[in-house]
Automatic annotation (TrEMBL):
Domain NADH:quinone oxidoreductase/Mrp antiporter transmembrane: 131-415
Organism: Streptomyces ambofaciens
Comp. bias intervals (Acidic residues): 452-475
Composition bias type Gly residues, residue spans: 492-501
Ranges annotated as biased composition (Basic and acidic residues): 476-491
Primary localization: membrane
Protein name: Cation:proton antiporter
Keyword Magnesium: no
Topology of the protein relative to the lipid bilayer: Multi-pass membrane protein
PANTHER family given in the database record: NA(+)_H(+) ANTIPORTER SUBUNIT D1, NADH DEHYDROGENASE
Keywords on record: Cell membrane, Membrane, Transmembrane, Transmembrane helix
Amino acid sequence: MNALVPLPVLLPLCVTGLKLAIGPRLQRFQRFISLAVLGAVLVLSVLLMVAADRHGPLSVHLGDFAPPIGITLVADRLAGLMLTVSSAVTLLVNVYSLGQGMADRDDRTPVGVFHPAYLILVAGVSCTFLAGDLVNLYVGFEIMLVASFVLLTIGGTATRIRAGSTYVIISLFSSVLFLVAIAMTYAVAGTVNFAQLAVRLQEVPVGVRTLLEAMLLTVFAIKAAVFPLAAWLPDSYPTAPAPVTAVFAGLLTKVGVYSMLRTQTLLFPGHRLGDLLMLAALASMVIGILGAVAQTDLKRVLSFTLISHIGYMVFGIALAGRGSISGAIVYVAHHITVQTTLFLVAGLIERRDGTTELTRLGGLARAAPLLAVLFFVPAMNLAGIPPLSGFIGKLGLMRAGVDNGGGWAWALVAGSAATSLLTLYVMAKVWNLAFWRDAPPGAEHEGVVLESAEDEPDDDSDDSDDRDDGDDRVDGDDRVDSAGDDGDRIGGHGATPGPGTGLPVPAGAVVPAGFLGQSITTTKRLPWPMLAATGAAVSLGLLYTVLGGPLTTFTEAAAAELLARTPYIEAVLGR
């Protein structure tokens, strides 16, 4: 079974090479192998999780080189659960992206880049979860950074390039800090292997150990978007295509949380920065949700709720007890799924109505009841309505806070309750504006980018239905040129419908636009793969509720294993 540990990393990388060799040809085959490899990674992740639960942590030294020289990969209960949840989510998002037809569509990127970059991202995430040392944890982060910059800037629009540049600058800063922390750790301990560090750091002077802990926490807090290091997130994620935004918001920030969990329990038991972490958790929860209250765009609302709910996970890490760690793990698994689902729903809304601005939406509960259900269920789950999985995670964290009994713990319990109520308020606000009320009079439906006006349809007609970007909106200042003579213009009003004209674009219509030479369209009938993938994500969130008992039992065992440290150390060092 140990031989399976590297495969979640190696499989996506090998298939990426194959896809790059194929290029933009054989679109059906490209889609098939993407789904096949992600499905295989999901199966492998489940096998590793079950094996780690039954037999303890699994480890492998690549090349049979023992630490500290060799590359060590380790799959314990925590890594197995994170791999399973992330693999399921990435598979569903890939199905969604195929339905949206965004892959390999941009005329400025002639070689298919979406799926290769996406698979590299999956490999980076898997490498991070399985890393048995700081260097490979860093490598996993850098693999994700390279892939994420490509995905964030798909389409090459000025907005995406600007947002992607901000993301990369912040990420590079954290990477440099991470490298400095790794160098300092090696200087004082002579190794970067987690199992060896767990032993040797206890002999390091307290001041030096605290400095290393602070540096690593800063790096991971930037990755996880913990306040006050989260200012980059609300402007970076919403500009990307819906599948990219969904997987980034749901998954990439949790990689930072996972790294905090791993290092705080294994390397710095009884950490001295607990009070600072509690303050950061409280600030993230409260300030993040207040930011969400002030927003009127759905994607920005979800971005701020993301920052807020990261605070719940840091809450559990800061208390450092078995109950709090278990609650944090439950909440990470829950939040990966629910946050991804909500961003997928936001993508569906944008594809249908051309905007996620709440002041311009309305009547969706009547016009698109299935879309309303797909939003309502994960929204209530995020708010923590009983008996959904969000409630299970929050209850575990708040119970751990009460059991702790300290002043900061009680403050976090109060902050958690207030944040949960404000989250419910925010979700109710979105529901009322976008779904429950009637559509505002005179609301325009801006089209979304479908295909380049200069492009001719490909010979492979079955592929053409899937080809649309689905997220790039035409800026309000862009003018829409005439589609032909006045009599041929849509609606016959003598003016071309589109942004800035006061006339809506009818569903399914394609008109030329002065937006990087691309055409725009609106589609009231959403592609079934997008709906199916979103529905499956909703069902996965509900599955956590149905399996709430076994899930909490598993996370309690994972928390006990993390705090004991001995099973991990023995699995790696063979003691």
